[in-house]
Design goal:
Length: 96
C-alpha cells in the first residue's frame, strides 16, 4: 500500500511545467540552429535592436534634461511668489 501526499492537481501542474520546459528547450535549439545557419542576419537584427534602443535612451535622456532645465528655470523665477505670505517660526510653544 503506497501513500500519496499530493493531489491530481499537483500532478497536472508538474506535467504542464515539464511540457513548457520541453517546448522552451526545443525553441532554444531551433534558434541556436538558425543562428548557426544565418549568423549575418541575426547579427544585423541584433545591431538594429541595439541601435533603436540606444536612440530611444538618448531621446529620453534629452527629454529629461529639457524638463529639468524648465523646472529649474520655473523654480528660480518664482521663488518669492509662492512664499509671499509665509513666515517661519523657530520657537516651539509647549503647553505645561
Amino acid at each position: 500500500m503506497s501513500f500519496r501526499f499530493w493531489t491530481n492537481a499537483i500532478c497536472q501542474a508538474s506535467r504542464g511545467i515539464a511540457a513548457g520546459i520541453f517546448i522552451v528547450g526545443l525553441v532554444l535549439i531551433g534558434f541556436g540552429f538558425m543562428i548557426y545557419l544565418l549568423p549575418r542576419f541575426f547579427a544585423t537584427l541584433a545591431a538594429i535592436v541595439f541601435f533603436v534602443g540606444g536612440v530611444g535612451c538618448g531621446i529620453t535622456a534629452v527629454k529629461i534634461f529639457l524638463a529639468q532645465k524648465e523646472l529649474d528655470k520655473t523654480t528660480s523665477d518664482n521663488s518669492q511668489r509662492y512664499r509671499q505670505n509665509v513666515r517661519l517660526h523657530s520657537e516651539e510653544h509647549r503647553g505645561v
